[in-house]
Design brief:
This protein is mainly α. Helix content is 73%, strand content 0%.
C-alpha cells in the first residue's frame, strides 16, 4: 500500500505533463496560419523587424530632442558667461538667440527653408513628411552651430566643457547631408543643393583650428570617417541617368570638407587614394587576363567613369601645401600607374600626375 501511494504523485505529475504538451500542440495547430510554418515565420520576422524599426525611430527622435535641449543649454551658458564678462545684462540677448524662428533665413540668406508650422506625429509618415523632418533636422543643427560660432569668439571655454554637444551636432548635421545624397543615389531629385553645401561649410568652420582646439572625441571622429567613406562610395557608384548635378554637388561638398577643414583633409585624401588604388588593382587584374574570354567583366565601368571625380578632388586638395599624406599611398599610386599605361592610358596618366603632385607637396 505504501509503495502504491508513493507512486501516485509521480503518475499524476506525468499525466499533467502529457496533458499540457497535448494542449500546447493543439494550440499551435489551431494558431498555425493557412500558408504553413514558413509563411508564419516570415510574417513573424517582418513584424519583429517593423517593431525594431519603430523602436529605433523612437530612440533617434528622443536623442534628437535631448541633443536640442543640450544645445539650448550650451548656448544659454555661453551667452551668460559672455555677457557677464562684458558687464551686460544677458536676459534679452538669451531670449533673442533662443527664440529665433527655425524657418527663417540663416547666415544672411545662405540657408532658407519652407517648413510646415508643426511636425507630423505619426511614426508611419508619407515621404513628404519624412522630408520635412529631414529639412527640420538639418536646419536645427545649422542654426545651433552658426549661433555658437558667433558667441565662441567671446567665450571659447564653454566649448572645452561641453564639446561633446558640439561634436554630436556636427555628426548629426553631416549625417543629414549624407541622407539627402543617399536619396539622390536611388534616383530621387536632389533638392536645394545650395543648402547642403552651406551646411558642409558650417561643419568645416566648426572643425576649423579655432573650433577644434579642444580635440575631437574618438567615437565622433570614427563616425565622421564612416560618413566620409559613404560620401566617396556614393560618388563612385552613382549610375543614375543625368546624375551630373548630383555628382558635382557631392564633389563640392567633399572639397569643402577636405579643403577648409584640417581635421578631415588628410583622412579624405588617403581615402580617395585608397579607392583609386583599389580600382587600379581591378584594372590590372583585367589586363593580366587579356587573353581570356569576357575579360572586362571584372571591371566596374561605373566606378571607372566616376573615378575621375576622385582625381579632380585629389588635384584640388593637392594645392594645399600643408598635406601630411601617407607616402606609401603615393608610391602605390605611381607604381600601379605604369602597368595600366597601354590599356587604360588616361587613368594611368592621372594616377602618375596625382602621385607627382603629392610628392612635390611633401618635399
Amino acid at each position: 500500500m505504501e509503495g502504491k501511494s508513493a507512486s501516485c504523485p509521480e503518475g499524476v505529475v506525468s499525466w499533467y505533463i502529457r496533458t499540457s504538451r497535448l494542449a500546447v500542440a493543439l494550440a499551435i495547430i489551431k494558431l498555425r496560419p493557412p500558408g504553413g510554418a514558413r509563411q508564419f515565420t516570415e510574417s513573424l520576422a517582418e513584424r519583429l523587424k517593423r517593431q525594431d524599426e519603430s523602436w529605433k525611430s523612437k530612440a533617434e527622435s528622443l536623442h534628437e530632442d535631448l541633443l536640442h535641449l543640450r544645445q539650448e543649454l550650451l548656448l544659454t551658458r555661453t551667452l551668460l558667461n559672455t555677457r557677464s564678462c562684458a558687464g551686460q545684462a544677458p536676459g534679452q540677448e538669451i531670449a533673442k538667440v533662443l527664440s529665433q524662428d527655425d524657418t527663417r533665413e540663416v547666415n544672411s540668406g545662405t540657408l532658407q527653408t519652407c517648413l510646415p508650422p508643426t511636425p507630423p506625429n505619426s511614426q508611419k509618415v508619407p515621404p513628404k513628411d519624412r522630408q520635412w523632418r529631414q529639412d527640420h533636422r538639418l536646419t536645427k543643427h545649422v542654426q545651433f552651430l552658426q549661433r555658437l560660432s558667433g558667441l565662441r569668439s567671446g567665450f571659447e571655454e564653454s566649448l572645452c566643457q561641453d564639446g561633446d554637444v558640439v561634436w554630436d551636432s556636427v555628426v548629426q548635421l553631416l549625417d543629414c547631408v549624407v541622407e539627402d545624397f543617399r536619396q539622390a543615389h536611388t534616383g530621387q531629385p536632389l533638392r536645394h543643393p545650395e543648402q547642403l553645401h552651406n551646411a558642409i561649410q558650417v561643419v568645416a568652420q566648426t572643425l576649423s583650428p579655432g573650433g577644434a582646439r579642444q580635440g575631437f572625441p574618438v567615437q565622433h571622429f570614427s563616425r565622421v570617417e564612416d560618413l566620409l567613406k559613404e560620401m566617396v562610395k556614393l560618388l563612385l557608384t552613382n549610375q543614375q541617368l543625368n546624375a551630373f548635378s548630383v555628382q558635382d554637388s557631392l564633389s563640392d561638398c567633399l572639397l569643402a570638407l577636405g579643403g577648409n577643414c584640417c581635421i578631415t583633409r588628410t583622412p579624405l585624401i588617403q581615402l580617395l587614394m585608397s579607392q583609386i588604388i583599389q580600382l587600379a588593382q581591378q584594372l590590372g587584374d583585367a589586363c593580366e587576363k587579356s587573353g581570356e574570354e569576357h575579360e572586362h567583366h571584372q571591371v566596374d565601368w561605373v566606378c571607372y567613369q566616376n573615378s575621375f571625380y576622385l582625381f579632380w578632388l585629389l588635384e584640388r586638395l593637392a594645392q594645399d601645401t600643408d598635406n601630411r599624406v601617407n607616402q606609401e599611398l603615393v608610391v602605390q599610386l605611381e607604381t600601379k600607374a605604369f602597368p595600366l599605361a597601354d590599356e587604360f592610358s588616361l587613368f594611368s596618366l592621372y594616377m602618375w600626375r596625382i602621385g607627382g603632385l603629392f610628392r612635390a607637396g611633401d618635399s
